[in-house]
Amino acid sequence: MKNTCVVLMLVFPLLAHADDKGREFYVAVGRFSPASNAQLADPSGQYGLALGGGGRFSPHFSWNVDLLFADARVDTPKAFVPGFLISQSGRADLETWGFGGILKAHLPLGIFDLHAGGGVGFYKSTLTVKRGVVFLPFVADQEIKRSDRGLGVQWIAGADARLGDSWRLGFQWRRLDFKAQLGAEVPGEVNTGGNLGLLYSRWTF
pTM of this prediction? Predict the structure, then answer.
C-alpha cells in the first residue's frame, strides 16, 4: 500500500508536465468517520487519504482518477472465537482502499474554486483480527483476515483557494459507499465506507 502511494506521487506530476495546462495533481489527508452497521459495533475512524490527478474539460467541468484509502477500528465480532491458549484483541482493523474515477462540476469565484461531483470505483475492504499465544509473548502474532472487493460509489464536495500560480489549498468532503461481505463471522453485507473530511492540496499545470 505504501509503495503504491509513493509511485502515484511520482507518476502523476510527470503526467501533468507532459501535457498542456489544465492538468492537476492533488493530495488530500484527513479524518475518516466510518458508516454504522449492525454487525460491527463501536466503529472508530482513524484517517483517510486520497492521491490523484486529472484534467479539465472546461473551466466548469473536470475529471479525476484517484486512490482512496480509509482506516477504521471496530469491536471484534463475537463470532471470532480463539482456540485453546490463544488470546484475541478486542478491537479489529477495518481497511478500505481502491481506485475510482470522478467527474466534477466547478464554480470559479475569483481566487476560490468550489466543486462537487461523484463517480464509481473498484474497492477492497479487509477486516483483520489479531491473535497471539497465551504465555508466549515472543511468538509472532497471528492475523485472521476477511476481505471482499467490488464496485463502490463516491460523492465529493469542496472548495479551495489559489495560493500561488499553480497551487491551491482547501477542504474536501467525501462520502464512500461500498457494500462488503466479510465472511461467515460477519453475516450479510456491511457498508465499509463512510465520510471523510480532508485537507486538500491541488497543483495545476
Answer: 0.82
